[in-house]
Amino acid sequence: xxxxxxxxxxxxxxxxxxxxxxxxxxxxxxxxxxxxxxxxxxxxxxxxxxxxxxxxxxxxxxxxxxxxxxxxxxxxxxxxxxxxxxxxxxxxxxxxxxxxxxxxxxxxxxxxxxxxxxxxxxxxxxxxxxxxxxxxxxxxxxxxxxxxx
Length: 149
Known about the structure:
Shape: globular
Low-confidence stretches: none
Distance between the termini: 19 Å
Structural class: mainly alpha
Number of strands: 0
Radius of gyration: 14 Å
């Protein structure tokens, strides 16, 4: 499974991000392209330890059992619900959000596993650095596919 600790994987993601434009339309889901970028950026903040969120009650009940869907090579299901804390207004700035996400992806890769968040994921709970690396890739890959990138 791909991980964002691998520079070649980060380069692939950055290339795919550069395919997006403010006019990019989703194949599924409700987010516009700027919201998606901001959403992915928030997820990066969680992985970097720059943001923490309270565990959801649903995550406390089933997060550990659901985690295998996040840490395998199968694509995430389309129209999967998101954490409420990650819902965003529709006025995000595309250029700013894209640049923020790119910088956070590079920081995550450059920091490596030793500087990964030790805070629990709001749904899945405690993750190893390896799980964060795979999970953040799978998350951003899912949303890039959402916009045909």
